[in-house]
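quick one before i forget lol
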Amino acid sequence: MPTMKSQVRGTQEAPPQVRIWLQTFLFDSTRAVADMVFTGVLEGDPRIRWIVTRCGGALPLLADRTELFRKASDSGAHNGPTLQEQRRLWFDMAGTPFPHQVPALVRAFGSDRLLYRSDYCWTLAAAQIASVDAAEQPGGTTWRRITDKNAAKLLPGLRPRMTNKGSRRRSACSAVSRGPAAGAG
């Protein structure tokens, strides 16, 4: 017996590899954070620095909805507002961060916990760096400066490795685009 889906033209499911690449990674990140919020994990130990991949997936778009659900459900698993909890997270730029994902993330959570990550080998580093440089830059600074400053704040022990010839800092984006040996010495 034919199903409704089989009778409607163009309703075939996307191949599994497309669903995984296009949807699963982003929604897995979103779901993981929502689960951590609603089970109280983010409130557990404030010393844990959580890094959420791919700009938090759909999380920036669902941040207000998450807070609304917390108020409506009153599950008792957590005490504070979910937006406050989510602003403690760190977010990387893996995947395709521009032109839409980073601006949505910054509007929802700010830029003070935004990190660079290339998502190599799925997203070519050179292409991602080009998109970072071509994106509309935040007022008075650049995305490279923001992510370098945030990386140094998150991982202060890496600060000496990010230097190049005296006091001139080497951008994490530059280090990836030129390769590990570039600028050494």
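fyi The chain has one domain: 15-158.
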